[in-house]
């Protein structure tokens, strides 16, 4: 439909992301996709490079301790992703001889790998022409093809819709281009329509760039980070990551003034397996 124009634009505007470099393995692609969930690319790239140098294969990573993994994860956020990656690597080694599978269904069987990540790995690491639909792709499709504002949760029907757009050749590159266009040009607010390669065929532009309906503008309330349990969890994790030995509760008490919230955050870290308490009552990263 609009593949030639989009691919030409991508040739000129593709960002030089670390995991797009020639020779990147399927393991490298999988890491990049998990790390990039709800995390800006600029924060991911240096951590991704460090991980690939330290743990270039699933076998190498599977031998790491949870504590080492959590320290290396740093402040990427949502550290449970790191522990799920460790589980994932162990299964890859045990059940796939250390090779990241390329089949979507087999990828979905891996711990912590959801539908989007499975399709992204199959597409970008193995060149399978399968639809890869994230929020950016959904927004581009909704505007360029349907002429409407993106609203509502993702649905399985969107996979079939995007699949119909995939060209027989260069399908994976087309998928990457759709994502890039949504990230750089067809943004959620203030889209740069004048710079869009789909301007002449965009259904949303043809319809006069209609404003969203009131119900489409209604957004789920997003809790601010400052003052939340998530912030307190992060502060406690900082203490544990930076400590060479188990720390007493008095050290943790210093990170946040509200005792009830601090206790709740610490208990949740213990439940999530992100922290442990030893026989002396001190706290440490999981070993």
UniProtKB/TrEMBL annotation:
Gene3D superfamilies according to UniProt: Helix-hairpin-Helix base-excision DNA repair enzymes (C-terminal), Hypothetical protein, domain 2
Enzyme Commission numbers on file: 3.2.2.31
Swiss-Prot/TrEMBL catalytic activity: Hydrolyzes free adenine bases from 7,8-dihydro-8-oxoguanine:adenine mismatched double-stranded DNA, leaving an apurinic site
Keyword presence, DNA damage: yes
GO BP terms: base-excision repair; mismatch repair
GO function term, MF aspect, one: metal ion binding
Names of the cofactor(s): [4Fe-4S] cluster
SUPFAM superfamilies referenced in this protein's UniProt entry, alphabetically: DNA-glycosylase (SSF48150)
Domain of life, per lineage: Bacteria
HhH-GPD domain sequence ranges: 35-184
Pfam families attached to this UniProt entry: EndIII_4Fe-2S, HHH, HhH-GPD
SMART domains given in the database record: ENDO3c, FES
UniProt similarity note: Belongs to the Nth/MutY family.
Name of the featured protein: Adenine DNA glycosylase
Species this protein is from: Corynebacterium testudinoris
Higher taxonomy: Bacteria, Bacillati, Actinomycetota, Actinomycetes, Mycobacteriales
